[in-house]
Amino acid sequence: MSAPPPPPPPPVVSGGLIEDTSEPAAPSMEEKPASKPVEGAPPASGKVWERPWSIAEMKEGSRDWTLASDAGMLLFLKEFSQHIRTRTHEIEKQVDTLVDETKGTGTRMNNMINDFLILSNIQFVENRVFEENNEAEAENEEQKKEDE
């Protein structure tokens, strides 16, 4: 077994600013690690943690997940959550409109029933029942013939 590598040297201080002269231990977080571009994903411009990641990018980056991946997923989830809230409010407004229209239709139906009741008090309304059974008509005709 070999010993672990020595720690990097401390940063150099020049003019009050700390300059890191060591080699980066991990790939830069400025851009996504070199891999094939994802179809439908926006071009990698700037810092990947400053924009929401697509689902395809998350699937592709799942093998080498980083803090930038978490930040991209967080932005995706915030955007997705906002979209769900917006859509829910739109549906709520549509349901409210439907309820109002249903109540209005119920009111118009009750008004029509009242109009018929008022009409029945003023004028005789005949309620007729029609039988659609041909056998009943045939029996009525036979009884008329027998009565004659």
Structure report:
- There is one protein chain.
- The chain is mainly alpha-helical and 148 residues long.
- The protein has a domain at 46-125.
- It is 51% helix and 4% strand.
- It is built from three helices and two strands; from the N terminus they run ββααα.
- It has a two-stranded antiparallel ribbon.
- The N and C termini lie far apart (125 Å).
Write a short abstract of this structure:
The chain has helices at 55-60, 67-122, 134-147; strands at residues 12-14, 17-19. With 148 residues, it is mostly helical. Strands 1-2 form a two-stranded antiparallel ribbon.
- Main sheet attributes: strand count, strand direction, barrel closure: 2 strands, antiparallel
Order of helices and strands: EEHHH
Number of strands: 2
Order of strands in the sheet with the most strands? 1-2
> What percent of residues adopt helix (DSSP H or I)?
40-55%
Category by helix and strand content: mainly alpha
Distance between the termini: 125 Å
- pLDDT under 50 segments (min length 5)? 22-41
Radius of gyration: 40 Å
The count of helical stretches stands at 3
| Percent range for β-strand residues | under 5%
Q: Rough shape?
A: elongated
Mean residue pLDDT: 75
Region (Disordered): 1-49
Biased composition (Pro residues): 1-12
Please describe the topology of this protein.
Layout: E1 12-14, E2 17-19, H1 55-60, H2 67-122, H3 134-147
Antiparallel strand pairs: 1-2
Brief descriptors of the model:
148 residues; mainly alpha; two-stranded antiparallel ribbon; 3 helices; 2 strands; 51% helix
